[in-house]
Write a structure and sequence with these properties.
With 150 residues, the chain is α+β, with helices and mostly antiparallel strands. Helices cover 41% and strands 11% of the residues. It contains five helices and four strands. β1 and β2 form a beta hairpin. The longest helix is centred in the middle third of the chain and has 14 residues.
């Protein structure tokens, strides 16, 4: 078993399995949150939703993208959220979720917003963000793993 303490949470991995435990720690101040400045020399192209994508294909894509994030914490949060909610979401909600996970500047921003460590920007403060925040609140401190692919 190995544990790694990040400034914002503890991640525990049990060797030989896919089980992880996450617990969001209370930050003592805003100074504990690390912000990396954007590099003005790196141009990130605007995200475009594929034209003519069916709602089923969009759900499948979002499920995959929710599992493959830049940080383990978001892999766990977003993959379990997507597995539980994507099939119940309307097209408008799917588009809001798509915008959130594909246009936010950094994965750490998403993590801080859903855990309530930072205020959510107006562009991302939607009913889907509220659903995500509730998902994090109800699963806080629980040992979770990514859902199996079916």
């Amino acid at each position: 078993m190995s544990s790694v303490l990040h400034k914002c949470c503890t991640v525990t991995k049990y060797a030989g399995s896919r089980w992880f435990a996450i617990s969001a720690a209370r930050l003592s101040s805003e100074q504990d949150i690390v912000h990396y400045p954007d590099n003005p020399n790196i141009k990130i192209p605007a995200y475009e939703i594929a034209p003519g994508e069916t709602i089923e294909k969009q759900r499948s894509r979002l499920l995959y993208q929710s599992r493959k994030r830049g940080i383990l914490e978001n892999d766990l949060i977003l993959s379990t959220f997507a597995s539980n909610n994507l099939n119940k979401m309307s097209k408008k909600q799917l588009d809001a979720y798509d915008k959130l996970i594909n246009t936010a500047r950094h994965d750490w921003d998403i993590f801080y917003w859903v855990t309530g460590k930072e205020p959510t920007p107006k562009d991302f403060d939607t009913d889907v963000m509220n659903m995500l925040k509730e998902h994090v609140r109800t699963n806080q401190g629980m040992r979770i793993r990514q859902p199996d692919l079916s």
